[in-house]
């Protein structure tokens, strides 16, 4: 089934130990859409400026992404400037030019309104809620957020969280949201805020899913958390968008399956790691534009090989 | 087959958010021996002071640990004072009283000299090398170290590393040893220093094994690293000795197996995580003294459940 994603489509200027790029295509919705497009149909809602070219849009349409929800406003597109050094586990933001994104008011095309899978990328929770409320047929909602909304827009964020099937955030964000250092206790507190399931991303160490009694339908239960590995990589060219690519692989696979079961959820966690591992191999979205389904499946097997006791390929 | 471990047997005074203990039995060799004792015979070489009681020794002998190598010197036993707060991922050392450990000169009892599996816990690499050189029948050597030896005793440490089948250290130590931030590149550099296999402990995120062409005999190869999970725990009472308990479970299982294969190595990584997860449930060695083999096997299954795609128990 198709996924509707609302979030940023932007230009990124990035410096890492492997080089420097200026104004390459980026943004959470872009990384997410490209990663998810290998699994299911994707519809995108975002705002871009006059500097967003036909070639920029073609990057998405070539992957079959429906861009009818891409609004063109007067002015320049959202532009982020950042740098990574050392272990590259954290970006240093050097500049955030919101430009047309400052007045982003998501508009949902009629043709999108029947979408059953909604992904709310990291934007103002007020906008996340507004989009959610206009999607009456939605079956599953997955969302992201960041420290800024957790610290200063708490009430709005909590309203969105109550509607989420899956909240996908990182270690620091879970601990901040819960006001608790222990990951398991923090996860329980966050689940009590509303999300049926919580996926915590640990960067180079993988991700952990924490389930509640509400995670699955039909009496299905997951008794314990599930940990998916990340692939140890000798070269991380650009970590920008790794988390959004994880989300795209994860949610794209979920939406492609007829039923949500614990087994399907586990595979989705692996596909999330797979797409994240591709994303960081090149600057911007380059690798996500040209990966093949065969490469994705081979890497999925590699994720099994590096984490399963009974893998027989070695 | 039996394991010989040389390292510290000490008293620890520890404060964590869960309480405070004074002079409880600790030390790397103690945690290691107790954890390994559930899998194979263990022989220990260490020095203790006059304050080391018959009851302290009985903690080890009750688990069948051979304590004939426990030397009693004039003076007090090694005493470490430390505290944990917040996420408890790092100990704050408040005091290190080496006492009799300052002049530790390991003596190997005749009855120990046929031991085939040697574990060199974190002590001066000069002593590690001296013990190694007196064990002509040794078949496998596994070792640990710490930042202090890496920074200031490099040449001695490098000599020991060349003799190791497995080097077991943590993330920060691997990066420090290699002078390299990327984990995979750092691991390759460390393997080039001599250890046939490198196991990197990631604390609450598990551990990763990096293999070389020399990891296994008989033409066996592991094509990729292996990642073992750690159990997400809602309550960590005392992290002291978690790494040594990991080493004990890991090496104890390896030594209990007739042959070293990639499949055996993977299971050993899981048993390492299992024993580490028990160790932190209580202060000091309390939990390692009374865990049962049934509990160990049940937790091993739990480790599979939280990490394997095809686990059918959920």
TrEMBL record, chains A, B:
Superkingdom, natural source: Bacteria
- Could you identify this protein by its name? Adenosine kinase
Q: Name one GO cellular component term.
A: cytosol
Q: Which InterPro entries match?
A: PfkB_dom (IPR011611), Ribokinase-like (IPR029056)
What keywords does the record list, in alphabetical order?
Answer: Kinase, Transferase
Q: Which residues form the Carbohydrate kinase PfkB domain?
A: 20-286
Provide the GO MF annotations for this entry. Answer: kinase activity
Report the source organism. Edaphobacter acidisoli
């Amino acid at each position: 089934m198709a996924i509707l994603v609302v979030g940023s489509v932007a230009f990124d200027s990035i410096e890492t130990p492997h080089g420097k790029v200026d104004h390459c295509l980026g943004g959470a919705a872009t990384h997410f859409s490209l990663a998810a497009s290998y699994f299911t149909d994707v519809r995108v809602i975002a705002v871009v400026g006059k500097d967003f070219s036909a070639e920029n849009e073609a990057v998405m349409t070539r992957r079959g992404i429906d861009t009818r929800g891409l609004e063109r406003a007067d002015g320049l597109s959202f532009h982020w400037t950042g740098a990574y050094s050392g272990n590259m586990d954290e970006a240093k933001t050097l500049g955030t030019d919101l430009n047309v994104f400052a007045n982003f008011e998501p508009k949902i095309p009629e043709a999108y309104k029947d979408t059953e899978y909604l992904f709310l990328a990291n934007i103002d929770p007020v906008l996340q809620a507004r989009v959610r409320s206009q999607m009456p047929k939605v079956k599953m909602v997955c969302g992201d957020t960041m420290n800024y909304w957790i610290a200063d827009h708490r009430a709005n964020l909590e309203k969105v969280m109550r509607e989420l099937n899956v909240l996908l955030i990182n270690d620091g964000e879970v601990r901040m949201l819960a006001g608790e250092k222990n990951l398991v206790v923090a996860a329980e507190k966050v689940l009590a805020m509303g999300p049926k399931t919580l996926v915590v991303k640990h960067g180079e160490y993988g991700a952990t899913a924490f389930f509640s009694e509400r995670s699955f339908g039909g009496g299905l239960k997951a008794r314990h958390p599930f940990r998916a590995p990340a692939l140890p990589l000798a070269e991380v060219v650009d970590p920008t968008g790794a988390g959004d690519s994880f989300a795209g692989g994860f949610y794209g696979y979920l939406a492609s399956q007829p039923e949500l079961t614990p087994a399907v959820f586990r595979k989705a966690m692996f596909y999330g790691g797979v797409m994240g591992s591709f994303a960081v191999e090149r600057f911007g979205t380059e690798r996500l534009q040209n990966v093949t389904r065969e490469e994705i499946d081979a890497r999925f097997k590699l994720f099994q090989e590096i984490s399963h006791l009974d893998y027989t390929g070695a």
